[in-house]
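Async update (no meeting this week)

Hi team, since we skipped the sync, here's where things stand on the single-chain job. The sequence we agreed to prioritize is pasted below, unchanged from the tracker. I ran it this morning and attached the output directly underneath so nobody has to dig for it. Comments welcome in thread, and please keep replies under the output.
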Amino acid sequence: MSSSEPDAEGALGGSSPSARVLARALDKIIKHSSWRRHAALVAASKSALDLLSSSPAPDDEPDTSSPSPVPGLPAPAADAALAALILALDPASPKVAEPALECVAGLLSLRLLLGDVDAADPSPVSKLFAAVLSCVSLGGGGDEALELAVLRVLVAFARCPGVAVSGECLGQVVKACYNVYLGSASGGNQLCAKLALAQVLVIVFARVDADAMDVRVRTVSAADMMDLSDRSLNDSSVVQAAQAFINEAMEGSDVPEEAPPVDAASVEAEGTGEDGGISKIREDGLALFKNLCKLSMKFGTPDSPEDPMLLRGKVLSLELVRMVIDNAGPFWKTNEKYLEAVKQYLCLSLLKNSALSAMSVFQLLCSIFMSLISRFRSGLKEEIGMFFPMLILRVLENVLQPSFLQKMTVLNFLEKISKEPQVVIDIFVNFDCDVDAPNIFERIINGLLKTALGVPTGSTTTLTVAQDQTFRIESVKCLATVVKSMGAWMDQQLRIGEFSPGSSETLSSAENHNIHNGEEGSGIDYELQLDTSSSDITDSSSLEQRRAYKIELQKGITLFNKKPSKGIDFLIRSKKIGNSSEDVASFLRNTAGLNATMIGDYLGERDDFPLKVMHAYVDALNFEGMDFGQAIRLFLQGFRLPGEAQKIDRIMEKFAQCYCKCNPNAFTSADTAYVLAYSVILLNTDAHNPTVKNKMSKADFMRNNRGIDDGKDLPEDYLSTLYDQIVNNEIKMTADSSVAQTKQSNSVGRLLGLDNIINFVNWRSAEDKAVGANDLLIKHIQEKFKAKRGKSESTFYVVADATILRFMMESCWAPMMAAFSVLLDQCDDKAATSQCLKGLRFSVHITSVMCMQTQRDAFLTSIAKFTSLHSAADMKQKNIDSMKAIISIAIEDGNYLQEAWEHVLTCLSRFEHLHLLGEGVPTDASFLTVPLIESEEKTKKSTSVLSSKKTNAFQNPAVMAAVRGGTYDSTVAKGSASALVTPEQINNFLSSINLLDQIGIVELNHIFAHSQRLNSDAIVAFVKALCKVSMTELQSPTDPRIFCLTKIVEIAHYNMNRIRLVWSRIWKVLSDFFVSVGLLENLSVAIFVMDSLRQLAMKFLEREELANYNFQNEFLRPFVIVMQRSNAPEVRDLIVRCVSQMVLSRVNNIKSGWKGVFMVFTSAAADDTRSTVLLAFETVEKIVRDYFHHITETETTTFTDCVTCLIAFTSSQFNSDANLNAIAFLRFCAVKLAEEGFACQDRAFEQPRNSAMVCGGNATVQKDGHISLWVPLLAGLAKLTTDPRLTIKKGAVGVLFDILKDHGNLFSLTFWTDIFEHVVYPLFSNERSTPSDQISSSNSAEYNLPDLETQMLAVKCLVGLFVNFFDVIRPELGRTASIVTFFIRSPYKHCATIGVSAILRLAEGVGNKLSKEEWKEILILFRESVTHTFIMFSKIVRMMQDIDIPDRIDSYSETEQYLDHEMYGNDEEEANMETTSYAIVKLKNHMALLLMVIQNIIKLYEEHSKYLHAEHISILLEMMSAIATHSSEVSSESSLQMKFHKACSLLEVSEAAIVHFENESYQSYLKLLQALQHDYPSLSEEMNIESQVLDTCEQILRTYLKCTGHKPYDETSQRNPSLHCAVPLSAAKKEELAARTPLVLQVMKLLGNLERDSFSRILPGFFPLLVDLIRCEHSSGEVQRALYNIFQSAILPMIRVE
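Output:
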C-alpha cells in the first residue's frame, strides 16, 4: 500500500484542480476502506489515482474527441475516478461513503462536474447521482452524518449550473430530502433536510423565473421554515446548526459565475421545443410544483386517517408550496401552464385539505391562499370566489361555536390581506361588483362586525370571556386596517400626500387619472399588461352600473325567497330577466341563492304563467339514455317538492311526460312513469326519514308497483335495482345545506357564493374529526372550474378611479360605524379603543375626501360624542384620545370637512370651556352680563381678587352645570339647575379635568393657525362653522362665551392675505355673523363684537386697495347694517367712534370704504342721541374740509354718499345750525370741485342723455374716465328742495342756483341739458302736476303754500340763470318758458303774478337775442296760459250757482255780531257765506292778474316792439282782445254780481271792481291798437287795425247803452211809436254809468278825431248808437257834451254838404 501513496500530498493527483480534489478523496477512501470488504473499491481507487497522476496538464490535453465529465481531466481518468466514487457510495459503509460524498459536493460547488442527470442516461454523472440517492433510499435508521452529507450533495447537485438535474431525477432529489425529513432519527437532520429541500426549491424556481441555469439565489433562513407542530426542531442549538449547514452548502451562491458555454448551449437547446413551448428548465419546475401539490394531497387510510407521519409530510409539502408561491415571479402569472397548474393542482390541494382538523394545515392553507390572493388574483378570480367563503368566511361568520385558534388565524389572515390596499379594492371590484360572484368584501365586513359585537346576550358559546374579547379587538383591528388601506389607496390615486389640491379639483382629476397599480400595492400585474383578453381596466361608472344591477338582482332574489310570484314580477319589471317562460325557467335553474322550497312552490302553481314556467323548466332537462332513478334524481336536484298534493301532481305529471318523450321505449305510457315517480318519492322519504320506524322493504316496494305498466308488472330486476339505488343513495337537492348553513344570518352573503359546492363538505368545528373530500366533490369542482374559466364573466377588473371608494363606503360604512362605536363605548382597553378611533379616523378621511356628507358626519359625530366633553364628569382616557382624533382630523383633513367643521369646532369650544373651568378662571359670562363700564371697573379689580376667584371657582354655576353634564346636542346642561351636586361628583369632575392636561391649548390654537393652509372652499366652510358655533356660544342664556368669537378675529387676521376673491367669500360669511351678533340683545356682547370688528377693520385698512374694487366697502358693511338696525344707543355710539377713528387714522388708504363710512354717518345723522349726531357731524365736517381730495379721487359714488350724508344732517333734530351748515357744506363742496378743475366737457358724455344723471343721487356721467362729481351734488340739493321745512327748502334752492350761477361756466351744453332734465325741471314737477281745480277750499292753498313759495323762488332763480347763460342753455328756452308761463295758470295770485313778472324779465333779459320763432313760442305759451286763467271765472260761477245770499236789513258792522255763528241761522248758511267770501277773493285776484297781464303786454310792446313781427303783435292783440271779451263776460253776470253785492254788504267788505276791470281791459286794448296805428301805419293797414278799433268802440258803446237800460235802436219801433214812461236809474246804475263814462268819452273822442272819409264810412253803423246815447239817461253831462261835439264837428258838416 505504501508503494501507491504519493510522495507529497500537495502533488497528489497532479496539477489539475479537479484531479487534486479527486485524488484527496480517493486517498481518504482507500484509507477508510476494508481490504476484504472493499477490495474492488480499493483497486478502482488506486487505478483512478494512477490515471490522475499520469494525466497531462490541462493545457496539454491530447484528446478532446470525447467530452470529459470532469473539466481538466481526460475522459478515461475522469470516468475511472467517478466509477471509484460510485463504488464508495455505500450506505452500509458510512466512513467510506462520507469522503466520496464530500468529494462530490466539492466538485459540484467548484463547478468541476459537467453533464445531465437523467434516469435513462447511463452517463457517469447520472450513475453518480443515483449512487448518492441510494444512501438514503431506505428511509430512516441511517447514519446521521451520512444523511447530512447526502443532503449537502443534493443541494450541490441542484445548485451547480453545470449539472442539469431534470425530470424524474429532480423529483428524486425532493423525495430524498423528504424521506430524510420524515425518517431521520435526528431532529437536527430533519431540520437540515427541510432547509435543504427548501433551498433546492428556491434554486429550481429561481431558474424558472430567469429561464437560465446560472442565477443568483438567496440562502433560506431556518426561521422562515420553523413549524410549531415540530417542537423537537425548535431548540436554538438545532436551529443554529441547521442554519450553519445550509449556509455552508450555499457558500458563494450570492456571486454567480459564468456557466461553461457548452453546458449553457445544451440547456438552451433542450429548453426550446419545436412547438415553441416552455424550456426544459421551466418544464422541470412545473413538474416539481405538481409533485409538491400531489404530496400535499396524500391522505391516510380509513384505518389510520390521521397518521402523524403522513400529517408531517403534508405540512411540509404545504410549507414548501407556500414558499414557492411566496417567491413566484411574474412568469407564473403570464404562463398559462403554470397558472393552470395552480388552478388544477394547488386549488385542488386547498380543497381537499380544507376539511382537515389539524390547525397547522389550516394555517398553511390560509397562508397559501393569502399568497394566491396577493399574487395571482387576476388569474384566479373564480377560484378565489369559491375558496374565500370555504376557508375564511365560514370561520369568520361562526360567532357562537368557533375554534379559537382557527378564528384567530382567519383574523390574522384578514389583517394581512387588509394591509394591501390594492387587494382590498380588487376584491370589492371583482366580487362585490360582479353579478356572478359572491359579495366577499361585504361578507368580510359583516363577519367582522358580528365578531366585533361579540356573542349575543343569552347565546350559548364555547368561548371564554377573554377569548371573545380578543376576537372583538382583533376584528376591530381588521376593520381599521381595511379602512386604512382604502384611505391609503385613495391618497395614492389622488396624490394627496404629494400636494393638496382643492376638493372639487381633486375629484375631477381623479376621475380622469388612471394609475394602473398592480398587486401588492406597487407591484405590476404582468398578466394584465400582456393579456388584455382576460382582464379589463374599467372606470367607476361601469362598476356603478354593475353594482346597482347586482343589488337590484339580490333584492329580487330576496323577494322571491319570501314571495315567489312577487319576486318574479319584480325581476321582470326591472328587466333582470326576460318576460318569457323560458327565461324565467332558466333563471330558476341556474341562479344561486334561490330558496329550493320557493322554487318548488312556484313551479307547482296552477296559474297560467307559473305553469308555463314549470313546463319550460322540465322541457329544458335532457333525460335521454338515463334510467328512471338517475332521471328523477337529476330532476329533483334543483328544487324541493312542495307540500301540497295538487302541486306535486302537476310537477310529476310533467316529469313523466318529459321522461317518456326522451325515452319512448322505457314504459308503455307516461302513466307508468307518473305512478313510479310517486312511488320513488315515497320510498326516498320512508328510507331516509329517521322518524319513520317501520321501513318499506323491497317486497313492499314491488308490491306497491304491481300492474302500473298498463296493467302489467315492471320487471322485478328493474324495480329491485331502483329500490337499491334509492335506499343506498338518498335523493338530495343540490341546494340542500347543512344545519350550519341554514342558520347563517347573512343570506345576502350566501348569494352567488357557490353554496352548491360548499354543501358537499361537512363543515365541523376544528376540534371535530374531519374526513377527506370524496371523488365526487373533486370531480364537481374541476368541472365547475372548467365551465367557468371560459366565460367572459371571469374577467378581472382593475380600477384606478378613486370614485370606487364611494361604493365601497356605501356598502361598509354602517357596519364599520356600528363596530367601532359599540366597542369604543363598551370597552376601555387601550388597544381596543385605539383601533376603534383609528378606524373612525380613517373613515372620516375617506368620506370627507369623497364628499360623502352623510357618512362623514356620522363618523365624525361619533368621534365627537365619544369625547364626552358634554358630560365631563364621566371622562376617561378613551375620551381624551377621541379629542386627539378630532384635532388630528381638523389638521389633516380640514380641506374636506365642509359642514362637518361644526362638530369639530363644537368640541374645541367645549374643551376650552372645561380647560378654563379647571384653571379656575372666571367665565366669560361674568364679563358679558354687565354693562361695559362696570366690566371695565371689574377688569381693574380682577388682579386683586384673582386668587379668591380660583379658590371658589368650583362653586360657580358654570362648574355645577358642567358637573351635571348634558347631551352632545345640547348647548346647556339638561339636568335641573336646582339638582344638588355631591362632593363625589366634584371629585370625579376634577379627575376628568386633569385628564385634559394631556392636550394643550397650543394644540387647539394650532388648528386655527393652520387655517392658512386650507384651500379656498375649505376656509369658507371653516369660517361658516366657526360663526355658527360662536353664535351658539353667544346666545346661551346662562353662560355666554366668546371663545369662538376671539378665534374668528384670529383666523380673519391669519387669512387676510389670501387672494381677494377668496377673502371676499370669507368676509361675506363673517359680515353676516358680525351683523347678527351686533344686533343681539346682550349689550356687552354686541359692544365686544363691534370692537373686534374695529380691530379687523384697522388691520384690513392697512392694505392698499386698487381703483374700482369694493372690498373695503364690503368690509365695513357690518358697521353700516348694525348702525341702521341696532336699538342700542351705546352700540351706535361705539360704531360712530370706531368709524371716526378708522377714518382719521387710515384716511390715506380708504378707497371704496368711503361708502361704508358715509353710510354710517348718514345713519348717525338720524340718531336720537345728541352726542352721536354731533360726533358724526364733526367727523364729516373734518373730512370735507381737510380730506376732500380723498373723496373725489375715488368713485363718484363716494362723493354721492358724501352728499347724501350731508343731506341727512339737514334733517337732524338736535341742531338747526347743523342743518343749515350741512347745506352750506354742499356749497363748499361745489367750490372745492371747481378749484380742483372738475369741469364737464362734451367729450365726457358718451352715454344716452336719459342715463347721464339720476336725480336720486346715483350718477353715471363720466369725466376723463371718472364719474362726474357735480351730478350727485346738484341732485342732492334738488332733493333738499322737497324738504317739508321751508328754511331748508329755500336754502337748498338758493344754494342750488347759486352753484349753477357761480360755476355754470364749467358746464357743457350736454351737462346743462342733464342738469335741467334731472335737477331743475323736477323742482317744478309738483307745480305742473297740480290740478288747477284745487280751489274748492281754502285749505288746499294753505297746504301747498310752502311748495309754491319754494317754486316761486326757484322760477325767479331759473329766469336769472337763463338770462346769465342764455348762449349755452338756449335749447332749453321752450321748456323754461313753459314752466314760467305755467305759473300764470296757478290759482294763487302771488304765484301767477310771479309767472307774469318772470315772463317780462325773461323778455327783458334775452329779448334782443330771441329769434322770430323763439318769440312766437314764448308768446304762444303766454297766450295759452292767460287764456287758461279764464277758467277761474267759470268755476266761480259754478261755485255760486246754487248759493243763495239772504237779504238782511240789520247791520253787520259790529264785529261781535259777525263772529257769532248764530247770526247765520244754521251751518249751511255759514258755509255758503264762507264759499261766497272765498269766491269774491278769487274773483278779485283773477281780475287783478288779468289787469297785470294787460299792463305787462303794453310794457312788452313798448320795450320790445322793434323785435316783434306782425305775428307776434297779432298774438298780443289776441290776448288783449280775449281779456277784454272776458271782462265783458264777467260784467254780464248780473245775478252773480247781485249775490256778491249782498254778500259784500253783509260782510262789510269791498265789492269786486268788475266795471273797472272791464273799462281797463277795453281802454288798454284801445290804447294798444292806437299805438300800433300811430307807430306802424303800414303794419296797421296790413293787420286791419282800424277795423279792430271800430269794433272795440262799438262794443264799448253797446255795453254802455246796456248799462243805461236803453234798448237798442230799432226801425220798427220808429214806425210804430208807442208811449211808455221812463223809469229813473237807480243809484247803483248811476254809479256804474259814472264808471263807464270815461271809456265812452274816449270812444267819442276817438270817433271825433277820425278823418271825414273814415267817419262817413263808419257813420251808418255808429249813428244809431249815437242816437241811443242821446235818448239815454247819463250820470253826468259829459256824455251829452261829447255827443254834441260829434254832431257839431263831424255829422253836421256832412249834412251841410249833402
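Quick observations from my side:
The chain has a mean pLDDT of 75.
The longest helix spans residues 1467-1504.
Reply here if anything looks off.
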